[in-house]
Amino acid sequence: MKAKYEPPLIVRHSLAGVNKLGSIPAIRPMSSIDGVRIEELVVAYGSPLFVFSENTLRERVRELRGELGRRFASFDLGWSYKTNYLSAVCRVFHQEGSLAEVVSGMELRKALAAGVAGQQIIFNGPAKTAADLTLAFEKRVQVHIDHLDELALAETVAEGLGIVPEVGIRVSQSDLPVPTWDRFGFHLESGRAIEAARRIVRSGRLGLRSLHGHIGTFIPNPDAYRMAALAMTRFARQIESELGARITTIDLGGGFASHNTLHAQYLPGEEATPSFSEYVEAIASGLEEGLDGAETPRLVLETGRALVDDAGVLVATVLGNKRLADKRRAVIVDAGVNILPTAWWYRHDVRPAQEILGTAEPTVFFGPLCMAIDVVRDRVMFPPLRVGDRVVIRHVGAYNVTQWMQFISERPNVVMVSPKGQHAIIRKAETLETLLLQEQMPAWL
Amino acid sequence: MDRVDVTVAVTGMNATDNPAPGVPVARALRHEPSFKGRIIGLGYDALDPGFYAEGLVDGGAILPYPSAGREALRDRLRWIRQELGTDVLVPNLDSELRALIALAPELERAGTRTFLPSLDSLERSSKTHLPRLAAHADLDIPPSEALLTADGISDAAKKFGLPLVVKGVYYGAVVVHTEAEGVAAFHRFAAQWGVPVIVQQYVPGEEYNVAALGDGKGNLAGAVAMRKMMLTDKGKGWCGVAIDNPELIRICEAVVGVLRWRGPLEVEILRGTKTGEYFVIEINPRFPAWIHLSAGAGLNLPYYAVRLALGLPLPSPIPHYRAGTLFVRIAIDQITDLSTFEQLAATGVLRSEQRAFAGKVSHA
Amino acid sequence: MDPESTRLRDLALSDTGFVFDPLTGHTFTVNLTGQLALRCLKDGLSPEATARRLTEEFESDKNTDPVRDVQDFVLQLRDCGLLE
Fold it and tell me: Which domains, and CATH codes, for chain A?
């Protein structure tokens, strides 16, 4: 029995260290998603291809709901539209009981168009127009006010409509073990948040019912949530005792880390990322401490990334190989950072989609763009790949299909795989016609 | 004690100028007359010195770096179990623990036992959570803060005063005397170990270390206290002396109790010069690099850890150790042919019975 | 004798794919096909003849291009300082 051929390779042992795993494969292939072969999907829908697992979406959200249900009598999840607002993905979350959390007029209209009731929508974001607020108040959307000018605008809009809508204010905090996100909402420690609350209650044109705080993004530290929950709860009690307004909802926003690995992280995300139970436990202990026996308000979380990231993969096809000046092997694939902007934040987990043999060596994955920054994954130990082989880039469900750029090529198909192994397109690939449809030629040219 | 005749895998073979505890753990096992088993060294580099120490390991294997992820580690440990027959695994590096704790039940089903803390205990012992733990267990710690950006250095300097202690999330601590040095140290640690980086008020005093073993039920299975007598330029202890200080042991007992700690640990304790108060500086979730001293002083904690992993009883009562026992580290050059390096570099595994390259290199 | 293959001939190559260069003290790892290719080149075979040996000794399919791979291997040997 002959051994399988692989390109001959010699590697010099460097002073930097010799970590050699011989022929033992360090990378496991990922050849199917929920029982559907990736090759079958690529043949049917082309490459590159985003694939979402309905099963993983439901599992993740059920796990979080389960943890919350164990500790809170009253809670809601708001599905963070900006993380992924493909209608099929949103529908899965709404079926699982999530509200819609929107941050722009477009997202608000998208949620309403999808049939989500106004009371089931939370409206955050720092840039609400009069038209947005009018629509939101008419539909009884839960609006969270971001700044004083918006507050004045909201009061005017409400007065014009002849109603007193119940709103919340967004609150930012500094005294947390995370980088301060003070650009959203009214700052707590400097007294701006209580000033805003006073103004709402005294003017009486809006009803203050909820507090919203989003402490940051990709926070791998549950204790930050405990401290945020504690500070928010104490603030709610201050509002109640000073202003007599009862805060019935505390919304702690999102920011839970997914299983991705940040470029600066030492341990891989699967080790460093806390479980939902750790986050929820931290929040529960902060609320309990802050309430000190008072009645527990409804808790809302707007976790996006941690729910959807794991459910999405990007399948790409190898276009070529080359060796760089520093001896690294480079692999060019047909998916670039224009459709995978998260490659700038994460060391994405890349897997071969088929069994591959051969010696792993340091490999860099480049996308197809004619740009130096088009690096999909820098330096990962990978066995040799051949033209036409598929690779799977994991944990790409968050932000990519909302932040992607249409640059020098059409954006690809996005498909969903059902728990029963059905699959279908949830967003069609663009064509040249799609792009030309938006363009117009001025008469003088 | 009854004989223990099993194969024990020990990680952390990089006994360099910033030594990992693998070599001293292996040497402590060799020190024990009733240990008749084999020792397998596990490391991350073919040149980890522990693989080359004469008479120390009966075999060895290279592990994938922690950054390769849990699946790669699981596959590798399964392979090592099949090929080298590891009955017990004693991990000695912080960065290995989360994955190994998660894999422990699976490893045990496959025949490799461990004796490790729960994930919850590990989390609560971390530098970032030390303030909460201290409050809970009524222990004193110097005021500290976990920073995600270097901006916080300036505030910390105002709050705590200079000098400050800056620490990496897994390893390393330096005393900085200016904000600029603090920012530089922040970036150094963040680049090496990621965030958060911990800043702590500098408390002048004398440092003590306690190596210990928790039984997982809240009790101390044994503890040895030590004072370092000489430091390297990296601040690592190069020699030290076992001491008899009940207060240090009591603090360690409180830590083990509140965490219900299972397995090895080291508690670093500072005694303030001014007040004589004791502060817990850090909890390390593994044996320290000076752990051979415990065996030399008569309380062989690595051997006890192996016994506990196997479900074997410890001597009762636990013997007293001899205060005044010294450890003095020496740097020696181990002379060897290419065969050990060849095996590890080319195949990732060291089987002492196969020394294929031995004698083959001649310059005829 | 070609001075390049003399340089290669001095290398100590073991069955594990471990290579020791006694001239510089550098060590290397080669994969299975690399071992055969290195042995062929040590014996003075041309890259084309080496590629033919690889095709004979290993199971390959029509998508492989051993001639290109051996040419790349020769470049790797040069990068490693084993060929002038």
Answer: 32-52+310-430 (2.40.37.10), 85-303 (3.20.20.10)
